[in-house]
Design goal:
The chain is mainly alpha-helical and 121 residues long. The protein has one domain. The protein is 66% helix and 3% strand. It has 5 helices and 2 strands, in the order H-H-H-H-H-E-E. The protein has a two-stranded antiparallel sheet with strand order 1-2.
Length: 121
């Protein structure tokens, strides 16, 4: 029994000083960041509508921005909201955001794009 306890203690000490233990320290922060990003994108997805109207109006003209910009904004809103829900559901696996810009208020004059490339943070 003592020999088994000593072996487990040595294995625990080796695991504690391994490089994986150093990486694991930042895991809670990465998971919390992904959760916060998902909650923010779910709750502010509706801001994509006026954002897209403004961007489309500046590039294509006011008439096109008001008509087509509303429809494109609704699609962007659905995309951002669903990506936010996906981030909330999978926050335990910290991946980089699939939405660019990361938050709707960052680079407000930049059109929102989506990526399908999953990468760990």
């Amino acid at each position: 029994m003592k020999k088994m306890l000593r072996t487990l203690l040595i294995l625990s000490a080796l695991l504690l000083f391994s490089p994986q233990a150093a990486v694991a320290e930042s895991y809670p922060a990465k998971a919390a960041e992904k959760l916060a990003n998902g909650i923010a994108n779910m709750s502010t997805g509706v801001v994509e509508i006026p954002k897209t109207i403004v961007i489309t109006s500046q590039s294509e003209g006011v008439a096109y921005g008001v008509t087509a910009g509303i429809m494109m904004g609704i699609m962007q809103m659905v995309g951002r909201t669903l990506h936010g829900a996906l981030d909330v559901a999978t926050f335990m696996v910290p991946t980089k955001p699939l939405v660019t810009p990361e938050y709707v208020w960052k680079d407000f004059n930049k059109e929102t794009t989506y990526s399908s490339d999953l990468q760990l943070r």
